[in-house]
TrEMBL record:
Membrane-related topology note: Multi-pass membrane protein
All copies of domain HAMP, residue ranges: 319-371
InterPro entries: Bact_2-comp_sensor_kinase, dCache_1, HAMP_dom, HATPase_C_sf, HATPase_dom, Sig_transdc_His_kin_internal
Compartments in which it is found: Cell membrane
Pfam families recorded: dCache_1 (PF02743), HAMP (PF00672), HATPase_c (PF02518), His_kinase (PF06580)
First-listed, main subcellular location of the protein, grouped into a coarse class: membrane
GO cellular component, one term: plasma membrane
Name of the protein in its database record: Sensor histidine kinase YesM
Biased composition (Low complexity): 597-606
Protein's organism: Marinococcus halophilus
Keyword Transmembrane helix part of the UniProt annotation: yes
Transmembrane segments: 298-322
GO MF annotations in UniProt: phosphorelay sensor kinase activity
Length: 606
């Protein structure tokens, strides 16, 4: 035998909570955790990519700057004015010509000094003793770089950062300089002078860093021998890099960033090589952690918001779904125990509200049907008991009346035969093989037979008319409803003087109801008297007839239908109200017997 899954026995509240946690809350928490982990990687990768982009930008800018300065030295070597200024002796050009050349050359350097804020100064000196000095005056030029430049015989020499005294009053600054010997264009072994271009180290560093995306990393430039060429700290520039292990890794691991601990802090290190220079970027891991804290706060906010939203959703689901369902379940249990007064409070118009309304209507209908069924069964039992007590055989009664009617005809007494025929018709209608419902037309035919018998007795003092609206002939009604009212009109309407009475019976449709009026022109009766008769003791025949009709209709169709007194100028107007039922839709509880029918819809007898 397969083991029953315990989850099937859980309450709807428990199932809903577990399903919501499994399908909503837990997945959101898992996604938040993945988001946090991926954000960590993305931020780290983004920081490293930014660092590489910065290095590429610095590499391009530094390379362009070095090329521009070297191009200036090239221009000095190959420009005719510079060449003449550095080689002509006093007799080879006039004073005015030397003055013009000096002016033009100074204008050239003024342009560069103006457009490049890192351009500190330039000094040109020829073997002929002429020189040009532009920018800040350098007092203590480092002799070792002059010597080294001459040893390179015309090749460019870039110096390490070194301190100089410039301006007035004097100020110490660190410069990176280009030294180059100027050789004769006709004899490269013959020196005609030299050029020195000094760049301000700190301003050059600021210029290279000016276009970077952010300043989250430490950027500096190293020479291959470990000398710091450019650094944010001007005091550090020109010194040797202290961590030789890091220097070796920079030289050997340029393709991929690597993690390194420096001065007690973890860094992600990236580098690029430019000739004999190494451009280095070091991003602190703590910076990435700081950026990640924002993501952490966002993630925590998402998680907290999700939990709060989940709680609100669960509360809302309990209040608007589970609570009404629970109330409906409790009322259903009451109905199971036989309590048909159970009702569910309808608080909404949604599907649950519709279900509650239909449940209330269903219970009401069941209660009404049960009450009707019980009462009808009691009435049926009572009728059966009375029939058994009477010990009258209906067929014997019919046959006897038919025999008397035919005897009257044979004896040529047609009026007597007609009366017996009317009486027989009334008996047949009363018994109707035990059926309770008959058509409207059949009920009025039986009433007509009763009126004919009464007219035989009363003669010209009784007049009557009967009317049935076309289309209502076969609408089922309870039998023996009209005859007791006609009997009351005859017995109590004529009064003590036995005046002439006219009884009118009409059946018609009013909205969705069948109306049968019994109207007479007798002495009349007040509404209060009608109410007294309807509530009188069963011993009173008149009161019993009205009570019987009222209860039969109310028990069968409900309180909306029954007997009513209509105010009239003279006489009495009793109105009976039935629902219009179709035989084919009510075969289960309406049994119609085909009685003798009269083809006339209007019956009038005066």
């Amino acid at each position: 035998m397969r083991k029953k899954l315990p989850i099937k026995d859980w309450s709807l509240k428990t199932k809903s909570t577990i399903i919501f946690l499994c399908l909503a809350t837990l997945p959101i928490l898992a996604v938040s955790a993945i988001f946090f982990y991926q954000s960590n990687n993305i931020l780290r990768q983004q920081a490293l990519e930014t660092s590489n982009q910065n290095l590429s930008s610095i590499e391009a800018d530094l390379n362009n700057t070095m090329r521009e300065i070297e191009d200036i030295s090239e221009y000095i070597i190959y420009n005719n004015e510079f060449y003449q200024y550095l080689t002509f002796e006093d007799g080879e050009a006039t004073v005015e010509e030397f003055s013009n050349m000096n002016e033009n050359l100074r204008a050239f350097f003024t342009f560069h000094l103006t457009n490049k804020n890192y351009f500190q100064s330039v000094f040109i000196e020829g073997e002929n003793g002429r020189s040009i000095m532009m920018g800040d005056y350098i007092e203590n030029e480092n002799k070792k770089w002059i010597t080294a430049s001459r040893e390179r015989e015309g090749q460019v020499l870039w110096t390490d950062p070194y301190e100089v005294q410039t301006g007035f009053p004097t100020e110490e600054k660190k410069v990176i300089s280009l030294f180059r010997q100027i050789n004769s264009r006709y004899d490269f072994t013959n020196s005609i002078g030299e050029v020195r271009i000094h760049l301000n180290e700190q301003q050059l560093y600021d210029y290279l860093m000016s276009d970077l995306e952010n300043e989250s990393s430490d950027l500096f430039v190293l020479r291959e021998d470990g000398t710091l060429m450019l650094h944010a700290d001007k005091e550090t520039a020109g010194r040797s890099f202290s961590d030789q292990t890091l220097m070796r890794r920079i030289k050997n691991e340029q393709e991929e960033p690597f993690k390194y601990s420096y001065n007690g802090e973890d860094y992600y290190v990236s580098s690029k090589q430019l000739e004999d220079l190494y451009l280095v970027s070091m991003v602190k891991e703590s910076y990435i952690a700081t950026e990640l804290s924002n993501v952490r706060h966002i993630t925590a906010g998402i998680i907290i918001g999700t939990i709060i939203l989940s709680i609100l959703v669960i509360i809302g689901f309990f209040m608007f779904v589970l609570k009404p369902i629970g109330a409906l379940t409790r009322e259903i249990r009451r109905v199971e125990k036989g309590d048909f007064t159970a009702r569910v409070e309808v608080a909404s118009k949604d599907e649950i509200g519709t279900l509650s309304r239909r449940f209330n209507r269903m219970v009401q209908e069941i209660q009404s049907l049960i009450n009707t069924k019980y009462k009808l069964e009691l009435k049926t039992k009572e009728s059966e008991l009375k029939a058994m007590q009477s010990q009258i055989n209906p067929h014997f009664l019919y046959n006897t009346l038919d025999m008397i009617r035919w005897s009257a005809r044979l004896e040529k007494a047609p009026n007597t035969g007609k009366s017996i025929e009317d009486l027989s018709r009334i008996f047949r209608h009363t018994l109707s093989k035990g059926n309770t419902w008959v058509g409207v037309e059949e009920e009025l035919v039986s009433a007509k037979s009763y009126l004919e018998l009464q007219k035989r007795r009363m003669g010209a003092k009784l007049h009557y008319s009967l009317f049935v609206e076309t289309g209502l002939e076969h609408v089922p009604v309870m039998k023996m409803i009209v005859q007791p009212l006609i009997e009351n009109s005859i017995e109590h309407g004529m009064g003590a003087k036995k005046q002439t009475i006219h009884i009118k019976v009409r059946a018609y449709q009013l909205e969705e109801a069948l109306i049968i009026d019994v109207i007479d022109n007798g002495v009349g009766i007040e509404a209060e008297d009608i109410k007294e008769l309807k509530s009188s003791a069963p011993e009173s025949r008149q009161g019993f007839a009205l009570q019987n009709i009222e209860k039969r209709i109310a028990n069968t169709y409900g309180e909306r239908f029954g007997l009513n007194i209509v105010p009239a100028a003279e006489g009495t107007h009793i109105q009976i109200r039935f629902p219009i039922l179709k035989e084919k839709n009510n075969e289960s509880h309406l049994n119609k017997e085909e009685g003798e029918t009269n083809g006339n819809e209007n019956i009038d007898r005066g």
